[in-house]
From TrEMBL:
The keyword Cytoplasm does not apply. The keyword Mitochondrion does not apply. This is Ribonuclease. Residues 253-383 form the Beta-Casp domain. It comes from Acetobacterium wieringae. PROSITE patterns: PROKAR_LIPOPROTEIN.
């Protein structure tokens, strides 16, 4: 048997692992690469296998970095079943169609630009229609049920506590005359969440593939983040500002709505204050996902089930508004009154939130609150890292708003929760493969595991294949190519910054021709030139190596 780590190997996104046995070939997830331009280019490269040869897919959950390339797979000949929970099947359907729509819009936008300069037209990765065709392949399996896929492969899906319907997958695979147990963690949720049960502990595995998103960080609890969330809202609104929350349409948005509705329930004193603040969920996808959450009550923890039993409406409070049309979305930025806008995408690289950030990021009265993981290379990551300027919709925007990162809302376990989950194994698995994390997170977590549990972990750093028969890991090596393209892009951004700075300077009447040319402008240009030189030097070292 072989396991090939094709995605979430050198980054957090693009989860896709190919399992080949002596009788079958199947995938664990088939997600989109998200983040830097170089990483996203991988979505357009041919699969490492013939999609028609894949017998089935085991899908851990409906986030697009885990399911986003399924339409591409179907388009290229995959006709097998996609096993996942019922909630995942339902949510993945709308997520994929939304993703198809984004790809169509992106292609349209690029083609509009490139056609004017006579360049080649691009095709969308897949369309909304391609995505809609996938729903026929989803096959729901309930949590906790031992399900026989065929006479030689059995699976069980367990609650992962990550998002509604997310699963930790146990597999019993008969291969070369013996049964091997493989466990795929998918994405693991934090413990003590407001709406979901804790991730299920798994007692045994021969081989384990485990996520490590927050392998090197501990974060505050959801309750602590919830408290700060309200404090930031009141503070911002009091000074006449608007709060913008880039949030994943699936999971984070519903958590935030729930946090606000709980506050409403328990703080009569503050209701007057909150009544004056309108909260807008500006994401059609989030609105649709919220409707699916409402009708899948059996996936929630007891506290939420109790609310529903008592006839309380879920995800509702007085001043909550869901905006649908583009005109309604635009109107939010024309209305000057203080408000809260929750909008996707969560990493601020796509969707309507870009327009809201363009409008509020440069205003000192505003607050921007990030509530989920921000992958390397994304706009969200640049903002939380303290960059003074970011590029949004091709414009260079000055970051003047107050920036917050409330990690307690994260759908991911932090390093302590990951360790707690791993310590649920009664015996050390033969191999533990660490995936779905940045290099530092994976390595730090491997060291922590060794120190505390005494288990050795294999850090997957690049596209690579592990053969169970001869215990060998073969590396394909695409990481270097991604790093190189990232560096060239950095160079392009440095040049763009210098260009924009000069443009701004020339636009101020009289300044460029004035005898008293401002010193600080020269210093700004010098600093930008230094950045450019540094990037060039780093590039030189990369090429030499
Ligand atoms: Zn996820």
């Amino acid at each position: 048997m072989k396991i090939k780590f094709l995605g979430a190997a050198m980054s957090v996104t693009g989860s896709c692992h190919l399992v080949t046995t002596d009788h079958s070939k199947f995938l664990l997830d088939c997600g989109l690469f998200q983040g830097s331009e170089a990483l996203e280019e991988l979505n357009y490269q041919a699969f490492d296998f013939d999609p028609a040869e894949i017998d089935f897919i085991l899908l851990s959950h409906a986030h697009v970095d885990h399911c986003g390339r399924i339409p591409l797979l179907v388009k290229q000949g995959f006709t097998g079943k996609i096993y996942c929970t019922g909630a995942t099947a339902e949510i993945a359907d709308i997520m994929l169609q939304d993703s198809g729509n984004i790809h169509e819009m992106d292609a349209k936008w690029i083609n509009k630009r490139t056609s004017r300069s006579g360049q080649r037209q691009v095709q969308p990765l897949y369309t909304e229609e391609d995505a809609a065709r996938c729903s026929q392949y989803f096959f729901p399996v309930a949590y906790g049920q031992c399900f026989e896929i065929n006479s030689r492969i059995k699976i069980r899906l367990n609650e992962a506590g990550h998002i509604l319907g997310a699963a930790i997958i146990e597999m019993w695979i008969e291969d070369s005359g013996k049964t091997t147990k493989l466990v795929y963690s998918g994405d693991i949720g934090a413990v003590n969440q407001r709406m979901l049960n804790d991730p299920t502990l798994i007692a045994a595995a021969d081989y384990l593939i485990m996520e490590t998103t927050y392998g090197d960080r501990a974060h505050e609890t959801q309750q602590e983040s919830g408290k700060r969330f309200l404090e930031i809202i009141f503070k911002t609104v009091a000074r006449g500002g608007t709060v913008v929350v880039p949030a994943f349409a699936l999971g984070r948005t519903q958590d935030l709505i729930h946090e606000l509705e709980l506050f409403y329930d328990h703080h009569e004193f503050h209701q007057n204050q909150l009544d004056k603040v309108n909260v807008y969920v500006d994401s059609p996808l989030a609105t649709d996902a919220t409707a699916i959450f409402r009708k899948n009550a059996h996936y929630f923890n007891d506290a939420i089930k109790e609310r529903i039993k008592n006839g309380e409406e879920l995800f509702y409070f007085r001043n909550l508004n869901f905006t649908k049309s583009i005109d309604q979305s635009k109107a939010l930025n024309e209305n000057a009154s203080p408000k809260v806008i929750i909008s996707s995408s969560g990493m601020a690289d796509a969707g309507r939130v870009r327009h809201h950030l363009k409008h509020y990021l440069w205003k000192p009265k505003s607050s921007i609150i990030f509530v989920g993981y921000q992958a390397e290379g994304t706009t969200g990551r640049a903002i939380i890292s303290g960059e003074k300027y970011v590029r949004i919709l091709r414009e260079r925007i000055h970051v003047s708003a107050e920036i917050y990162f409330l990690e307690g809302f994260s759908a991911h376990a932090d390093k302590n929760d990951l360790l707690k989950w791993l310590s649920g194994f009664k015996e050390k698995p033969k191999k533990i493969f660490l995936v779905h994390g940045e290099e530092e997170a994976k390595k730090t977590f491997a060291n922590t595991v060794k120190r505390i549990l005494g288990f050795d972990c294999t850090v997957v750093e690049d596209v690579s294949e592990y053969s169970l028969d001869d215990d060998a890991l073969t590396v394909d090596g695409i990481k270097e190519r991604i790093d190189l393209k990232n560096q060239i892009n950095k160079l392009k951004d440095n040049l763009g910054d210098i260009h924009d700075e000069l443009d701004n300077l020339l636009a101020i009447p009289g300044v460029a021709m004035s005898e008293a040319f401002p010193d600080e402008k020269v210093e700004d240009l010098e600093a930008l030139t230094r950045d450019l030189k540094k990037t060039c030097e780093e590039l030189k070292i990369m090429i030499k190596n």
